[in-house]
Write a structure and sequence with these properties.
The strands form three sheets. The protein has a six-stranded antiparallel sheet with strand order 1-2-3-4-6-5, covered by helices on one side. A three-stranded antiparallel sheet has the order 7-9-10. A two-stranded antiparallel ribbon has the order 8-11. It has 364 residues and is an alpha+beta fold. Strand 2 and strand 3 form a beta hairpin. It has nine helices and eleven strands. Helix 4 runs antiparallel to helix 7.
């Protein structure tokens, strides 16, 4: 599947005019004034807009893998039953508990919610989910990329583009849900208090059992003595999880920022920590990523295009390098700086024993 921004009519291929900017700013102001509030109820009506994004019907019967030794996490089975919103069930509500990400000019509004089932429906003790909304009126103002203005288009895409990207990932990697991906309960249209209709994806709630990788980095930095024995296994495990993704689907751009990876708290200090990838609005099929890379390359500010063979670019190596940069940026300048550099260079053979599929040139 290839998702092209140019397929969406609202994507800005050229600079928006003054009337478009005024309309955008007016809608942004109204949406922010009427934004979601704690305690509000949202009607949760199906069916799921992308049926293939649900976990396999046999879940949690998943084949074990050396790349991920942990048992799959339990699903909220009532949310996968024939009477659930995913299959057109009616009378379901979501009560907003707290914002996970609530930002003006952001491509996603993320909330922890309590599921309120219809009368007679049994839910069990676990009742919370994560709702990730693509509220288009709160998206950032259109701006042109500063890097290569002659090549890059305007930095704004509609909500349906992100919906297509994320639904593609959850469909392609549905066998990895409950392991290295959150369990997906479907994509739905939600009517917001402002009257805007926005697509939201309902996901497994991992807020109480996991910690974002970026928060872990920040906690360790406060100790002023980053623990290499903690970070080395995490680095290995993130690469293994990425390898599992690559084996399942040739997907590029799984992890670009430390806030797009969660680590299970109870498995944090094990030899094999458990990690979960989140946030797939910018993940692409590898073939498309390669094509986009080639089309955007300019040398000496010229317009000559180079073949992939000439560039020496490989999407798997690119993904691995991105993970290395996430870890390196977290420890750079800390007291572990020298140790981390030594660990990465001198102990290359030891690293390759742990990660035999690590590409050359990743640890730079």
């Amino acid at each position: 599947m290839k998702v092209d921004k140019k397929d969406y009519h609202k994507y800005y291929l050229e600079a928006p005019d003054n009337d478009q900017l005024k309309q955008y700013r007016k809608a942004l102001k109204r949406a922010w004034e009427q934004r979601l509030r704690t305690g509000a109820l949202l009607s949760w009506t199906g069916p799921n807009l992308h049926p293939s994004t649900l976990p396999p019907s046999t879940y949690p019967e998943i084949e074990p893998s050396d790349l991920y030794p942990h048992q799959p996490r339990p699903a909220l089975q009532p949310l996968l039953s024939p009477s659930s919103p995913a299959f057109g069930g009616v009378g379901w509500l979501l009560r907003l508990i707290e914002p996970i990400q609530e930002e003006k000019e952001s491509t996603a509004q993320v909330w922890k919610c309590e599921v309120v089932p219809p009368v007679g429906a049994l839910l069990g003790s676990e009742k919370t989910i994560i709702l990730k909304l693509r509220q288009e009126s709160l998206f950032p103002e259109p701006q042109q990329h500063d890097s290569v203005p002659e090549v890059d288009d305007w930095n704004w895409v509609p909500a349906e583009y992100y919906e297509a990207q994320e639904s593609f990932v959850y469909s392609s990697l549905r066998s990895l849900q409950g392991r290295v991906l959150p369990i997906c309960y479907g994509f739905f249209n939600f009517v917001l208090p402002s009257g805007e209709v926005s697509v939201g994806v309902v996901l497994e709630d991992l807020t109480t059992t996991s910690i974002p990788l970026i928060n872990l980095f920040q906690e360790e930095k406060k100790k002023k003595n980053l623990n290499s024995k903690l970070f080395a296994p995490l680095f290995y495990e993130v690469l293994r999880a990425q390898k599992l993704v690559h084996q399942t689907c040739e997907l590029f751009g799984i992890l670009r920022r430390a806030n797009n990876c969660l680590v299970a708290r109870e498995k944090l200090h094990l030899d094999r920590p458990a990690v979960v990838f989140i946030g797939f609005g910018q993940s692409n099929p590898a073939a498309w990523a390669t094509e986009s890379y080639v089309n955007s390359v300019e040398l000496d500010k010229g317009t000559i295009r180079y073949r992939v063979d000439d560039l020496g670019w490989d999407w798997r190596t690119g993904d691995q390098k991105a993970i290395w940069k996430v870890f390196w940026s977290a420890v750079e300048g800390s007291l572990l700086d020298g140790q981390w550099r030594t660990w990465s260079k001198k102990n290359k053979k030891e690293i390759l024993k742990q990660i035999p599929f690590l590409s050359d040139g990743v640890l730079e």
